[in-house]
Design brief:
Low-confidence stretches of chain A: none
Order of helices and strands of chain B: EEEEEEEEE
Strand content of chain B: 35-45%
Shape of chain B: globular
Number of helices of chain A: 0
Largest sheet of chain B: 6 strands, mixed
Helix content of chain B: under 10%
Distance between the termini of chain B: 28 Å
Oligomer: heterodimer
Number of strands of chain B: 9
Structural class of chain A: mainly beta
Structural class of chain B: mainly beta
Low-confidence stretches of chain B: none
Chain lengths: 120, 111
């Protein structure tokens, strides 16, 4: 059974960098059948795609966040990570890591989510 | 402003049928990309409800069904139950963004 689990600081100061890691167990992040990504949900709001990383390492980002995002992976640890620079209060959200199927682009596994608050 | 448009809320009495619409454009749903639906119960992560427009993952009751036509899709829930009260999101892929897009979410209230 696949499990994906987010980890990282729950509080980040304005203008600093948000860093989160997703640990994957029960499946390989280098499998060609899947891609991996980050979704966020601001309090009381809807879902927003942040970015994705495919099995070959290619990355794709939401254009509205592209200038501030880095998504990377550590295949030896079966983890992938998100860095969001220059955060402000609107970046406060629950951040989810997800797995998607490359064929249908459906997000079939979601982490439980981690709340990151941007505040001084 | 979400790329896919959903009604903010729908409601129905127990046992009734409700539908939730999801309207896109020629760069996403209309381009032939599949539509998927997720159910988010309060305080939990979204859960896949319908994939590939019409398919249910194992364990999802057949009271839930999906359809797609042109630039729109719909989620239908029959025999409403109190446990169906949740937020529902549609999702597809957008070729102009080269990424996933979501609807704004629809809150289902079971009266």
């Amino acid at each position: 059974q696949l499990q994906v689990q987010e980890s990282g600081p729950g509080l980040v100061k304005p203008s600093e960098t948000l860093s989160l890691t997703c640990s994957v167990s029960g499946g390989s992040i280098t499998s060609s059948s899947y891609f991996w990504g980050w979704i966020r949900q601001s309090p009381g709001k809807g879902l927003e795609w942040i970015g994705s990383i495919y099995y070959g390492g290619n990355t794709y980002f939401n254009p509205s966040l592209k200038s501030r995002i880095t998504i990377s992976r550590d295949t030896s640890k079966n983890q992938f990570s998100l860095r969001l620079n220059s955060v402000t209060a609107p970046d406060t959200a629950v951040y989810y890591c997800v797995r998607g199927l490359t064929v249908s682009l459906v997000l079939d596994y979601w982490g439980q989510g981690t709340l990151v608050t941007v505040s001084s | 402003q979400s790329v896919l448009t959903q009604p903010p809320s729908v409601s129905g009495a127990p046992g009734q049928r409700v539908t939730i619409s999801c309207t896109g454009s020629s760069s996403n749903i209309g381009a032939g990309y599949d539509v998927h639906w997720y159910q988010q119960l309060p305080g939990t992560a979204p859960k896949l409800l319908i994939y590939g427009n019409t398919n249910r993952p194992s364990g999802v009751p057949d009271r839930f069904s999906g359809s797609k036509s042109g630039t729109s899709a719909s989620l239908a829930i029959t025999g409403l139950q109190a446990e169906d009260e949740a937020d529902y999101y549609c999702q597809s892929f957008d070729s102009s963004l080269s990424g996933w897009v979501f609807g704004g979410g629809t809150k289902l209230t079971v009266l």
